[in-house]
Amino acid sequence: MRAVIYARYSSDRQREASIEDQVRLCRRWLEREGFGELAVYSDHGVSGQIRLRPGYQKLLEDARAGLFDIVISEALDRLS
Hints:
By secondary structure, the protein is an alpha/beta fold. Helix content is 40%, strand content 25%. It has 3 helices and 3 strands; from the N terminus they run E-H-E-H-E-H. A 3-stranded parallel β-sheet has the order 2-1-3, with helices on both faces. Helix 1 (17-33) links the parallel strand 1 (2-9) and strand 2 (36-44). The mean pLDDT is 87.
C-alpha cells in the first residue's frame, strides 16, 4: 500500500509543532502496520471549514491521479 500523511492545525492558538506531532503519530502507525510513506501534505493555521487549503487541494489532486492508496491522519477532523 502506498500511503500519505495529512496534518493540519487551524488557528494561531495552536503551535507549529502540532504538525510535527501529528506526522510523528502517523509515522508510528505506518511503521507498525508495515506501510511505506510517500508524502506528507499539510496546512498551517487554516480552518477545516475552508476547502481551498493548499495542502488539502494537492492531496485531492494526487488522489485523483492515483498516486497513493491510503491517507493517514491523526484524526478525522484534520481532514474535514
